[in-house]
Structure to design on (148 residues):
């Protein structure tokens, strides 16, 4: 029970840290929470958010289960923020970011900002950014082995 309490406590701290940061937008009124990945979006983006969530699980497959186990131990979270408009995106990220997808750190957690709306052919950029974060955390199979 102690481990479960610790996990909930760490998660709550991360969410509070996020909602008080510049990355959080009043436009976010819905979310999908699945362990280490939390997707925030505007309610009218629900279909898009669920599509991103399911595609992310398919894209990462075995790595996702490794990440979930690591989350239980270390509590690191990836906040995937689907900004509904260019304005909401620019309020959270500096104007120098002209990319569709931007990643920054928030303490021990990671924030991936997606400038909406997202086209079908732009999903890959989101998944690759999440994969880069997992590689940095050494949670992908090809990076799990110690380097020589």
């Amino acid at each position: 029970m102690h481990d479960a309490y610790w996990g909930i406590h760490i998660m709550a701290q991360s969410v509070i840290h996020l909602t008080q940061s510049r990355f959080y937008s009043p436009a976010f009124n819905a979310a999908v929470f699945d362990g280490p990945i939390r997707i925030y979006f505007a309610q009218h983006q629900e279909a898009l958010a669920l599509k991103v969530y399911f595609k992310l699980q398919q894209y990462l497959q075995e790595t996702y289960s490794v990440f979930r186990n690591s989350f239980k131990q270390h509590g690191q979270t990836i906040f995937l923020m689907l900004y509904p408009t260019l304005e909401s995106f620019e309020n959270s990220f500096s104007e120098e970011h002209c990319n569709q997808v931007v990643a920054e750190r928030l303490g021990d957690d990671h924030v991936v900002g997606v400038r909406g709306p997202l086209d079908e052919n732009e999903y890959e950029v989101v998944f690759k950014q999440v994969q880069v974060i997992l590689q940095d955390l050494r949670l992908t199979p090809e990076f799990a082995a110690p380097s020589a």
Observations:
- Residues 1-7, 142-148 have pLDDT under 50 and may be disordered.
- The beta strands are 30-34, 37-41, 78-83, 101-106, 109-115.
- DSSP finds six helices and five strands in the chain.
